[in-house]
Amino acid sequence: MLDDRKLAILRAIVEDYVSTNEPVGSKALAERHALGVSPATVRNDMAVLEEQGYITQPHTSAGRIPTDKGYRLFVDKLSTIKPLSAAERRAIETFLGGAYDLDEVVSRTVRLLAQLTRQVAVVQYPSLIRSSVRHIELVPVAAGRLLLILITDTGRVEQRVVETLVDLAEDSVAQLRALLNACLDGRSFGEVPLAVADLPDRVPAEDRPVAVAVLSVLLETLVERNEEKIVFAGAANLALGDFSKGLRDVLEALEEQVVLMRLLGEAGDPATLTVRIGAENQLQGLHSTSVVAAGYGMDGQALARLGVLGPTRMDYPGTMGAVRAVARYVGQILAGS
Amino acid sequence: MLDDRKLAILRAIVEDYVSTNEPVGSKALAERHALGVSPATVRNDMAVLEEQGYITQPHTSAGRIPTDKGYRLFVDKLSTIKPLSAAERRAIETFLGGAYDLDEVVSRTVRLLAQLTRQVAVVQYPSLIRSSVRHIELVPVAAGRLLLILITDTGRVEQRVVETLVDLAEDSVAQLRALLNACLDGRSFGEVPLAVADLPDRVPAEDRPVAVAVLSVLLETLVERNEEKIVFAGAANLALGDFSKGLRDVLEALEEQVVLMRLLGEAGDPATLTVRIGAENQLQGLHSTSVVAAGYGMDGQALARLGVLGPTRMDYPGTMGAVRAVARYVGQILAGS
DNA sequence: CTTGGCACTCATAGACTGGGAGTGCCAAGC
DNA sequence: GCTTGGCACTCCCAGTCTATGAGTGCCAAG
Fold first, then answer.
1. Within 13 Å, how many C-alpha atoms sit on residue B229's CB side?
2. pLDDT value at residue B298
3. DSSP E strands: which ranges in A143-209?
4. Which strand D nucleotides have any atom less than 7 A from protein CB atoms?
5. Chain B: residue nearest A225 by CA?
6. What's chain B's Rg over C-alpha atoms?
7. Nearest CA to CA, how far is B299 from chain A (Å)?
8. Is the CB atom of residue B46 positioned under 7 angstroms from any atom of strand C?
9. Pairing between strand A157-163 and B65-66?
10. Cβ separation of B139 and A141 shorter than 8 Å?
């Protein structure tokens, strides 16, 4: 359907357009890239590419720019992921190396990714459901209130207030705490609901209401906080690009946790990169943006996702390289801690 | 120096310019506001106001717009803080009412403030130094690593990894935890350094290195994390306003924790509003923005600050009202928990 | 199938224009 | 002496027009 030369021309169009941000014409194309054919030939091919929907022209008598479909073909067939330079690798190591706790890892990662790609970076905290319990803590904070603290094996710490209505003796709190940890230590969060099912029966009758309250908050937390924790950075990079009217929509979308989550998409094989281009993105206001995302995690299992958001006119090979590299590093760091 | 009429004219100019975003001329002014004088008189007064630096014209034969100095006078002498409408008060209550833990209070607050003012809102977490210890937890997380968790009376939870190098027996950890809590429970963080000074002497010799490591991390945390935790929301509102070139700078500034902190300024009397207008702001890239900030806290003592960032052309009375009201509510909520 | 030629399209930039909003100044009036 | 109407002046803005040039589509020849 499309011979090699047409594909080469499409690739050249994408590359030129991405780097110059200007519609690319047949003459410039024939010159800059050693295609060995005349501009007229290029024009003929371009007419075919346009007919098939891979490129389009902003107005008659302008050069061509790739369509979403064109970018898609480029990403799938015409390009290879660009490995990071040695300097970039070093930057990742030094930048992420010094981070100890999870908050720091995540916040450094998101800033790093934004800087590497010169785009908006998005990082999701490790999903609760796919982590396991390292420790549970109960601390009385006020009359009738306990603070429930969850610590996961990924270093994520979640806190929730439990309204117990009644005050619990220090002993009872300690006992409940011990019981919770005995039940749950080392368990994956997926097993938690089952593991705690009979727990209320194992506390003294007078403490039972409190135990039930604590458990219900615990279970709630697993649902509500499972994936919701997401951060982004690099919004300033949006102001560089070709956004003008769309900017507001994009900024708005970025502040919605739910939208961000959808943006990164479903967690899959951490080794696989997901690329969603332009209108492939169903989300409101993000029709002219592309997303490059990957899962990250320990030993081959995806804990959560991270990625980058930018204009469709994006350096896909470079961005994909950066996202993949950062995802791998983060996985290593989490595994090492 | 400036008689009442000139002041009234300045006020009218500020109000009109803020609401229309267009330079205001003498004729429109004389008509819209019942000044009882002719446009010519207004012109004379405007010439004086301009000479004194309160207003300026973008170009000859355009109307006048306020200068920073003009806004300053307006804020200090010509306007009163506008109380919120009943609907707005209700919005605050319902929006902040359902929040339990501190993270939720803060994140809701910042979104609420952004929405109320249609500007960028910034909220600082309660400063550690001005809080006191509610509980300290030590959890072994890996070989040679402890997780130190601080819980403050404001509900703030801080975590840090401690590299202990050696593994500690569960007993020793428990003992150290108990000792820490005995020393520190209820103490203000300002007293912590003194209170723990002799703590290493009170643990068994073999655990002493670990105790020292834990303490040094604890003290470090108090310094490093004291005020650094700051969030913002409503960046999308920037795209509405008259930013065009400056937008990038502002977005960049917002992503720098340090800049955000400086932005909110020194904590003062929580009842006092700080307004910094345009170039009064020394921060890079924020010369044409204004900041309205206030301290918030429990029982009259400021724990931290929150505020709003927007164009100098801002509805100061309304913004000040919203900031003050939100600050008070947040204080109440923190006190009540 | 490729190529050079050629007419055609159309965005862009620059020059020019008229209209209008707004000013500053001045002389007359209260 | 402050206020006011009149008036000339400035200068932005929007519209029109034009020349330019990049780029295209088509065609006929190689």
1. 22
2. 81
3. 145-152, 157-163
4. 3-6, 9-12, 21-27
5. B104
6. 26
7. 17
8. yes
9. unpaired
10. no
Q: Does pLDDT of B290 surpass 70? A: yes
Q: Is the CB of B40 under 7 A from strand C?
A: yes
Q: SS3 for A5? A: helix
What's A127's DSSP letter? P
Integer Cα distance of A285 and A278 in angstroms: 10
pLDDT of B202 above 80: yes
d(C-alpha A131, C-alpha A154), whole Å: 7
Mean local confidence (pLDDT), B64-86: 97
Q: What is the residue whose two structure tokens read 């550690």?
A: B128
Asked if the Cβ of residue A246 lies within 7 A of any atom of strand D, the reply is no
**Whether pLDDT at A117 is above 90:** yes
b vs e for A84-116, b when ≥16 Cβ sit within 10 Å of the residue's Cβ?
beeebeeebeebbeebbbbbbbbebbbbbbbbb
Amino acid at A335: A
Residue with tokens 């509510």: B329
Q: Which pair of tokens denotes residue A277?
A: 């281009």
pTM, full prediction: 0.91
CA pair distance A289, A280, nearest whole angstrom: 9
pLDDT at A268 > cutoff 70 = no
- Matching residue, tokens 């290029």: A42
Cβ of B162 near strand C (distance < 7 A) = no
DSSP state at residue A238: G
Q: What is the pLDDT of residue A267?
A: 60
A124-154 in b/e burial notation, b at 16+ Cβ within 10 A? bbbbbebbbbbbbbbbbbeeebbbbbbbbbb
Which pLDDT does position A206 carry in this prediction?
86
Statement: residue A214 has pLDDT above 90: yes
What integer pLDDT is reported at residue B244 of this predicted model? 64
Chain A with chain B: Cβ pairs closer than 8 A: 95
Query: What's the pLDDT at A244?
Result: 64
How many other C-beta atoms are found inside a 10 Å radius of the C-beta of residue B163? 10
Q: Which two tokens stand for residue A229?
A: 């924790």
Exposed e or buried b per residue across A223-241, where buried means at least 16 C-beta atoms within 10 angstroms of its C-beta: eebebebbbbbbbbbbbeb
DSSP A272: P
Q: Please check whether residue B306 is in contact with residue B326, taking contact to mean a CB–CB distance below 8 angstroms.
A: yes
Alpha-helical (H) ranges within chain B are 4-20, 26-32, 39-51, 68-73, 86-97, 102-117, 170-184, 192-195, 208-224, 246-254, 257-264, 316-336
Quote the tokens at residue A226: 């499972």
DSSP A15-52: HHHHHH-S-B-HHHHHHHTT--S-HHHHHHHHHHHHHT
Please, what is the angle between helix A316-336 and helix A86-97, to 10°?
40
Q: List chain B residues with CB under 8 Å of A163.
A: 100
User: Distances from the Cα of A232 to the Cαs of A47, A120, A306, B289, in angstroms?
Assistant: 41, 7, 10, 24
**Tokens coding A241:** 């690009």
Angle at A230 between CA A225 and CA A231, to 5 degrees: 145
Paired strand residues for A297: none
User: A157 vs B157: CB contact, 8 Å cut-off?
Assistant: yes
User: Pick from B101, B233, B247: which is nearest to A255 by CB?
Assistant: B233
Tokens encoding B103? 């993270």
- Rounded mean pLDDT, B253-268: 85
